[in-house]
Amino acid sequence: MASHPPIHPHGVVRGLDKIHSSEQLDGRFGRLFRTLQPAQFTDDDLAALAQAMVAPADTPTPEDQIDDEENTGTAADPGISAGYTYLGQFIDHDLTFDPASSLQKQNDPDALVDFRTPRFDLDNLYGRGPDDQPYLYAADGVRVLLGRQLTGNPHDPKTRDVQRNAPDTGPKRALIGDPRNDENVIVSQLQATFLRFHNRVADVLNAASASDFPTVQRLVRWHYQWVVVNDFLPTILGAQEAGEVFPHLAKQTSILEDPPRLRFFHWKREPFMPVEFSVAAYRFGHSMVRPIYRLNTTLATRQDIFSADPNTSLTGFREFPSIWAIDWQLFFRFTANPPATGPNRLQPAYKPDTSLVNPLGILPPSIAVNPSSLALRNLLRGRSMGLPSGQAVARKIGVAVVPDEKLRVGKATKADNDNNPKLVQLSSRFRDNAPLWYYILAEAQQAFAQNDTPIRLRGVGARIVGEVFAGLLVGDQHSYFNQDPTWKPLDQFTQDGKFGIAQLIAQAQQA
Asked: Domain 29-508, CATH 1.10.640.10 — does that match?
């Protein structure tokens, strides 16, 4: 089998192709486990695994039935709702924002030095700020500008799109801090929601006293960081795994009393982006993508994540139909008992298992080419980055290694789980040598017992994601971890003492 050409376009940040193994050398990216040897695979090995990970095309399950691939759960443990897939994408774009000008790209093509460290600072929202990108901001230099009004969400008649340009011909691209947040309809509307939350904070502060942009921006960032730590991570990792890194969550204390536990993420001067996180662990969300979504209850049909017809496809980088306002109650849990079936149902994410929905096997050219399979792209990139095997990392961090006979490839459903092929059946080179991205998904899949079993990251995946999130917040001198470690969200923004993504959206809808 011929070697695949280099992976280019979507999602590649400069500097990711040259990762130093020595902790004495600085770079935008680095390694958590510098001494572990790269796992070795052939092109045929990875192609066979990628093919097995992409599910066959299915007939969509009717909305009055539960889909076996959904990450549903019980009343006590409701699983992961669909919106967290795209909140995770939004977070990823914040952490990997590349602000360099085209001139700097020419002068510093490798981007190994002089780049700011990744932070939870919403650069994907604010761009370079009102002084450098005034077209993103209102005349007062405090509030942000929004786009056209959208319809279809009965709970939010003021839904807005992001700003877009208006060329004579061609697609209307978003005018936002990071163009990647226009790559699909869901993440672009999440971007608009965060922009509205900024304006809501500005309104609240201005009602008390004259607000200024740095003050509003800081408060928005801290509420966002709170959501990441107190909502997103416990949802993705589970309370126990999240509490291993953030003990204050389990103890109901503050980070001042119980700071994060960092066992493996260490840096010389400033935190870097670990390649084990960016190329493997944080790609868990690819397995959670649904093939179709209902955006709101006024639409007669659900929309495809990819389709040749722009009137049914959620692909972005364009102005989508104005009746596609997202009803976030179909994506996040706003009430304790949301509808489980029918057009008003809360759509769960698909399970984080070793299966990707069929459309991700052939990505649209606007997103990726050569190869167009998302699974193969992830596996090839992991090899090119010299990632160690999942088993090697498990031994390094001291968690139980999943034995080969339990490493299978396919859906975590009653019909499929026990009949999925074993990884070693695809190639003998996979014996005690699983690609790290695949291993993290297979590790999560070990929790499957029946169709309503919630599946979350565990072991290797949970430790990498948890520690990287903690390290980036600890290393950011402007995070609330360092500026005000006993800080809490504004009382008027909380609901029953809680503040998560649902409460953030509820506040944004008042702007």
From this structure: yes
